[in-house]
Amino acid sequence: MRVTARLLLVGPPGAGKSTQGSLLAASLGVPHLSTGAVLREEVRRGSPVGRQVGEYMRAGELVPDWLLRFVLEHQLSSALDAGVVLDGYPRTLEQAERFIRSLGHAPLERVIELAVDDETAVRRVLGRAPGARADDDEQTARARLGVYREQTEPMLEFFRSRGLLETVDGNRCKETVAADLGALLRARARGA
Ligand code: ADP
Do 109 and 24 meet the contact criterion of CB atoms below 8 Å apart? Predict the structure, then answer.
């Protein structure tokens, strides 16, 4: 059975991108590339770039594209060649346009939006392991949610108009969401 090998997961903080992303990647046999995780690792290493990245992340803001490129460019293009579940990039209309333009040889096959409402998103972020992430307090979570609604949601139309977007209700428990995602990919693989 052929299933999609280059997927992008999109959703607000707390949508379950990382939980579902790793499950999906394991079931597809491809890596899960979370740009947030890659950036956090850069911050943890304390490199000069990481120190700059950390300032944006702690404020709940997006890392500017010029800085993002230092950290991600290489990993992204090799991941796309091999198949990947992407989580976190692209996340603005501008990033999506550049992504499609520059990586046109390996386009995304599917974009899946994990839709969750604001209160579910904030509740889940605040319920994460305390101290695990520097950007998980309520004020920063709400700032990230605002950034998502303003800067990421407009990108969804870009993918919708290209026939790539599917939306899954991410408000439900993780097993139900995972089952829906699996069914969606199997239906696609059958050409339904
Ligand atoms: P969440 O989706 O829960 O906010 P992520 O781990 O995906 O968590 O991202 C955490 C932070 O990493 C974001 O708030 C942002 O600062 C930075 N980041 C991740 N991906 C990108 C991106 N594509 N462009 C700019 N900043 C990004």
Answer: no
Contact 39, 55 (CB under 8 A): no
**Comparing C-alpha atoms, which of 5, 34, 16, 4 is closest to residue 169?**
16
**Dist. CA 108–CA 93, nearest whole Å:** 15
Task: List residues near ligand 1 (CB under 6 A).
Answer: 13, 35-36, 39, 56-57, 60-63, 68, 88-89, 91, 95, 135, 144
Please state the atom number of ligand 1 nearest to the C-alpha of residue 11: 2
Other beta carbons within 10 angstroms of residue 183's beta carbon come to: 12
Closest among 102, 26, 35, 101 to 62, alpha carbons compared: 35
Tens digit of each residue's pLDDT, the chain (192 residues) = 444 578 999 999 999 999 999 999 999 999 999 999 999 999 999 999 999 999 999 999 999 999 999 999 888 878 888 889 999 999 999 999 988 887 765 578 899 999 999 999 999 999 987 888 889 899 999 999 999 999 999 999 999 999 999 999 999 999 999 999 999 988 877 765
Report the alpha-carbon distance of residue 27 to residue 3 in Å, rounded. 10
Give me ligand 1 centre to Cα 188, in Å. 28
Q: Which structural domains are found in the chain, ordered by start? A: 6-190 (3.40.50.300)
